[in-house]
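TICKET: design request
STATUS: open
ATTACHED STRUCTURE:
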């Protein structure tokens, strides 16, 4: 009897939820807080209808049912049947708005900040919005005001660049129709060469790219099944339903006096909504984007990504779940946060796959190809090894990590990632060696593993070289690499007697979102003496020599005349001359982890990765 009554209530709730009259906006505060004495009968009936509809929708999602098991089909107001398929679509797109439980809030706060977090770190993460620069020349850069959330901003920035540069609306369908195992750079080259007129992007285009980027990242974290959007319960649906002129007022009132200093604060102020279709998530993000532009934006997005992944899954991704994701003492985003936003998993390492340590223990790295990649100064210092999944992403865009900051590097032409014959051979040998390296990134393998590498790569070493490398019982990458450089191509090495293969000349651009004085641009303050404060944009000309030692390259190399911007030298347009003297900055060391022996030049201040 109880089951029959429950199904009847469910049927009634669904019928009410289908009526034409708009439901009353969902309240973010408990009903007890309102003045119940002034509630009219109509308001009471609307509230009851809303609660019943919400309960019905939740049950539908939980049980996987689209209609009650018994009873006649539901009718619309016009008298037509509401088909099962239509109801399933409605159920799949529904948003579930909830406040975090006390337990979830505690786990979330401890996971992000740990115990004993300083007020300075909490302030950094509570005062960073996701906003574009107002400066025309850097208007596509997300501005960072303080240290800390740069890892979140850089990851979002990388996806924004992807959508602005390579995936405008007229190319989305073409990109989606590309087979999964192929990359866009294998298609027509001209189709994927973006414009360098960064000031031409409209506010609408940037806003659309930001919404798409945020939604894509959240669904990536949710295994393409869901996106959880965290917002402030004190705002509720007020922003979505208000006029633009009132939005700032609503947000300002909600943020007045608001601070996050404990798990109980999170429990009080957060509201989370789950979406199971990209269209519904994009619509919601577009409506509440002012909330993410507010000072709480970066923290809210990080929480959204963690909840989209699931707190249990995040902890399972990590090698040491006891450590906070925001690192002390400066409050920087950990590698786990950056990896979560780039590949959807909060793994702590940057190598490919996972590394078996024996005894059932292993370290977790990046297991899939990614849309945008990652390079780090730490690799040039031999502290880690970035795998091919992050180093060679689908699009030529990389988050760049230093000891204390994250920035973004990108190219306008996807051809910069195309490999010539020698580069492909280089990659093949490195990949085979890395697959046998069980040293935790130490760069050495066993003799048995070394022979496996030689078989896989068809390298035929002279006996004296083989004996020399294997004499110590293990093979060090640097020693093996030197032998390969000196070994002729006919024996499987990389030595090219002609010295004419492999030359590349191309442009890269570097974004640093921290607003500082900039000498590279042309705009200055009204006094004309002090450079304006804005994010930094640097254009680099990169030359990758065709020979295998810098000395040979500097001695005799064909370079392009100025103004031939990245084209390959040919015919009378080529002149033989020494390149411009190489300039150096820490970013160059990062670039050389992707393009060994690269020579970089720029105009103005050196690019900064701190």
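STATUS: resolved
RESOLUTION: sequence designed for all positions
ATTACHED SEQUENCE:
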């Amino acid at each position: 009897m109880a089951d029959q009554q429950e199904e009847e209530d469910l049927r009634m709730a669904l019928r009410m939820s289908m009526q034409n009259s708009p439901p009353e906006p969902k309240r973010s505060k408990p009903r007890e807080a309102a003045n119940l004495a002034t509630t009219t009968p109509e308001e009471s009936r609307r509230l009851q209808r809303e609660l019943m509809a919400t309960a019905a929708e939740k049950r539908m999602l939980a049980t996987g049912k689209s209609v009650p098991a018994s009873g006649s089909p539901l009718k619309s107001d016009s008298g037509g049947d509401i088909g099962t398929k239509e109801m399933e679509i409605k159920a799949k797109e529904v948003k579930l708005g909830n406040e975090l439980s006390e337990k979830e809030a505690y786990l979330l706060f401890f996971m992000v900040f740990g115990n004993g977090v300083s007020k300075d770190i909490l302030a950094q993460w509570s005062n960073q919005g996701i906003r574009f620069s107002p400066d025309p020349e850097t208007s596509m850069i997300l501005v960072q005001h303080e240290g800390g959330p740069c890892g979140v901003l850089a990851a979002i920035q990388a996806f924004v660049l992807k959508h602005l540069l390579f995936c405008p609306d007229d190319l989305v369908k073409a990109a989606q129709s590309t087979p999964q195992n192929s990359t866009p750079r294998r298609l027509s080259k001209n189709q994927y060469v973006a414009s360098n007129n960064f000031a031409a992007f409209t506010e609408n285009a940037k806003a659309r790219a930001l919404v798409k980027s945020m939604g894509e990242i959240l669904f990536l974290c949710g295994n393409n099944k869901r996106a959880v959007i965290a917002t402030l319960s004190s705002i509720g649906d007020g922003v979505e339903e208000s006029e633009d002129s009132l939005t700032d007022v609503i947000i300002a009132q909600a943020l007045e006096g608001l601070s996050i200093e404990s798990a109980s604060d999170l429990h009080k102020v957060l509201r989370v909504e789950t979406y199971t279709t990209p269209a519904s998530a994009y619509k919601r993000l577009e409506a509440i984007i002012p909330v993410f532009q507010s000072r709480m934006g970066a923290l809210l997005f990080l929480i959204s990504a963690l909840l989209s992944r699931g707190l249990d899954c995040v902890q399972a991704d990590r090698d040491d779940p006891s450590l906070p994701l925001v690192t002390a003492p400066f409050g920087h985003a950990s590698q786990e946060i950056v990896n979560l936003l780039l590949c959807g998993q909060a793994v702590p390492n940057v190598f490919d796959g996972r590394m078996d340590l024996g005894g059932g223990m292993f370290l977790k790295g990046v297991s899939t190809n990614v849309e945008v990649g990652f390079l780090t100064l730490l690799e040039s210092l031999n502290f880690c090894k970035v795998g091919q999944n992050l180093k060679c992403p689908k699009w030529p865009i990389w988050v760049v990590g230093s000891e204390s900051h994250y920035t973004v590097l990108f190219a306008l032409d996807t051809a910069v990632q195309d490999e010539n014959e020698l580069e492909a051979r280089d990659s093949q040998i490195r990949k085979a060696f890395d697959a046998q390296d069980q040293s935790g990134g130490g760069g050495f393998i066993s003799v048995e593993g070394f022979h496996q590498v030689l078989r896989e790569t068809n390298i035929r070493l002279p006996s004296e070289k083989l004996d020399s490398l294997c004499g110590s019982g293990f093979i060090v990458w640097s020693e093996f690499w030197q032998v390969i450089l000196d070994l002729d191509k006919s024996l499987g090495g990389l030595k090219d007697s002609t010295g004419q293969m492999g030359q590349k000349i191309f442009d890269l651009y570097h974004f640093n979102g921290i607003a500082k004085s900039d000498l590279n641009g042309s705009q200055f303050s009204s006094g004309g003496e002090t450079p304006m404060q804005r994010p930094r944009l640097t254009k680099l000309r990169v030359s990758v020599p065709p020979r295998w030692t810098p000395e040979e390259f500097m001695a005799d190399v064909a370079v392009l005349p100025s103004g031939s911007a990245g084209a390959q030298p040919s015919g009378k347009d080529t002149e033989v001359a020494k390149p411009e003297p190489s300039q150096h900055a820490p970013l160059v060391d990062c670039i050389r982890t992707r393009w060994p022996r690269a020579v970089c030049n720029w105009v103005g201040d050196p690019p900064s990765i701190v």
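CLOSING REMARK: DSSP finds 23 helices and 17 strands in the chain. The radius of gyration is 28 Å.
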